[in-house]
């Protein structure tokens, strides 16, 4: 057997973004409001909880009435809607092979339930794909990246209602047909597990309208699973040869100690994280999940053909985000640290980012090997990066800390490939500074490209290359050989 020494020649290097975090232009050319347009920026010293993305009915009423004077940064983004040609040119300068983006559902169907699509929205993405193609950059497109049209929230309370499946399918079929010559790689729902952590973020659901929020969030998840399988079916019919992936926020759990109860707890929490890819890749609900539902007195409304649909149309590849690992204990104690929508016990062997995310490069290798062993489907790292406070000095940002973070993670990804993992690509999160998903901050920066804009949207919007820009350019040029 030939020894694997590095990344394959067709490896998809690039970066990843979301429409709601970069585009702006929230009320231009017929676009409707989405869930992201109601997530406000709250200064760190005024935050009262870690999850800032849930909203209440009263809050929505105040915002809609115009009596609430808040700041909603995702409405502005970084104005990619008007700067996409210049930004994509910078991506091409780095040598991107692929660019992950999402289509803003409410730019195509402003209310989500409209009968006909918005041509201006379709034309915008026509030109984005044309620009990418001119640089031989492969688009990797997410259908729903925390961008549920707000009209679906008003009419149905989001994915709680099964009728949203039909509206999603109309949207999916529209973009599959329109962009069938432009896009080969698709994904259905970004970090689909977030619907059970933040229902408004993941499914446009206002939880205070629900009698049983926990049970209803899992019912809404079922609707998304069915929609994902049906979209996979239609993709194959409309674009033969195209590939559909799922997308998971991978949250690897380690036992806090070697106590068997901690080991069991970590296994159980890992299983609940992997349940989402189990359904997408294996096409069925695992027994441990059915036991979880029973233990919590949750009875899903599953229609006659639903399970057959899940089984018949699994995804082609598994994509995921990876930023940190977490600790599990049967008796939580000790210091905690913040995570992406999560809190975890502090791992004494790991350093943490400015936002308390525990930095664990070796965990990426562990995750890749576990996913490969579990599914034997191609894997795709579609988010990995470091959110940090950057300072412009002499017209640039000397972000060696970001280079170090990415370098360590890419090294571990390379080792996983050498282990035998089939890895399609590596897409760094936020190749250009963008609005943070979890906190709506601009000061939490990820990019190789600095955007002169503060947390309140002030600034010239000028783009500057950070030190990491040329470093990543070299990584791509050498296919990860010069690490």
UniProtKB/TrEMBL annotation:
Q: Which domain of life is it from?
A: Bacteria
Gene3D superfamilies cross-referenced by the UniProt entry: Glycosidases
* GO MF: hydrolase activity
- Give the record's keywords alphabetically: Glycosidase, Hydrolase
The catalytic site is made up of: 383 (nucleophile)
Q: Does the keyword Hydrolase apply?
A: yes
Extract the InterPro entries matched here.
GH, GH_1_N_CS, Glyco_hydro_1, Glyco_hydro_1_AS
Q: Which family does it belong to?
A: Belongs to the glycosyl hydrolase 1 family.
What's the protein called, per UniProt? Answer: Glycoside hydrolase family 1 protein
Q: Which organism is it from?
A: Staphylococcus americanisciuri
């Amino acid at each position: 057997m030939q020894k694997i020494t590095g990344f394959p020649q067709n490896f998809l290097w690039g970066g990843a973004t979301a429409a709601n975090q970069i585009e702006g232009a929230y009320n231009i050319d017929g676009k409707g409001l989405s869930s992201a347009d109601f997530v406000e920026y709250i200064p760190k010293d005024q935050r009262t909880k870690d999850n800032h993305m849930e909203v209440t009915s009263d809050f929505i009423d105040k915002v809609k009435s115009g009596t609430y004077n808040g700041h909603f940064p995702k409405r502005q983004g970084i104005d990619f809607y008007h700067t996409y040609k210049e930004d994509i040119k910078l991506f091409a300068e780095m040598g991107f092979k692929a660019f992950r983006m999402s289509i803003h559902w409410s730019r195509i169907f402003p209310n989500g339930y409209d009968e006909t699509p918005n041509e201006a929205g379709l034309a915008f993405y026509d030109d984005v794909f044309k620009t990418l193609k001119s640089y031989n950059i492969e688009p990797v497109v997410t259908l729903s990246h925390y961008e549920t049209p707000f009209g679906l929230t008003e009419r149905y309370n989001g994915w709680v209602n099964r009728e949203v499946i039909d509206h999603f399918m109309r949207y999916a079929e529209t973009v599959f047909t329109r962009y069938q010559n432009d896009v080969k790689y698709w994904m259905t729902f970004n970090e689909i597990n977030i619907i059970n952590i933040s229902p408004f973020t993941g499914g446009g659901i206002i939880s205070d309208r629900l009698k049983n929020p926990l049970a209803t969030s899992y019912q809404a998840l079922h609707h998304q699973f069915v929609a994902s399988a049906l979209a996979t079916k239609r993709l194959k019919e409309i674009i033969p040869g195209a590939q559909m992936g799922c997308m998971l926020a991978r949250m690897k759990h380690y036992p806090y100690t070697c106590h068997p109860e901690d080991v069991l707890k970590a296994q159980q929490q890992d299983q609940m994280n992997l349940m989402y890819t189990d359904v997408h890749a294996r096409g069925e609900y695992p027994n441990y999940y059915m036991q979880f539902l029973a233990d919590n007195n949750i009875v899903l409304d599953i229609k006659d053909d639903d399970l057959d649909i899940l089984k018949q149309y699994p995804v082609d590849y598994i994509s995921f985000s990876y930023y940190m690992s977490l600790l599990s204990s049967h008796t939580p104690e000790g210091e905690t640290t913040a995570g992406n929508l999560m809190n975890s016990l502090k791992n004494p062997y790991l350093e943490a980012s400015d936002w308390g995310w525990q930095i664990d490069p070796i965990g990426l290798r562990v995750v890749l090997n576990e996913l490969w062993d579990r599914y034997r489907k191609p894997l795709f790292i579609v988010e990995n990066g470091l959110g940090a406070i950057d300072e412009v000095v002499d017209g640039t940002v000397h972000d060696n800390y970001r280079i170090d973070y990415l370098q360590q993670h890419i090294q571990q990804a390379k080792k996983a490939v050498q282990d035998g993992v089939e890895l399609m690509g590596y897409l760094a999160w936020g190749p250009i500074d963008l609005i943070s998903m979890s906190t709506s901050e601009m000061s939490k920066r990820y990019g190789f490209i600095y955007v002169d804009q503060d947390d309140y949207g002030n600034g010239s919007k000028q783009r500057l290359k950070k030190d990491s820009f040329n470093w990543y350019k070299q990584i791509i040029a050498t296919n990860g050989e010069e690490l």
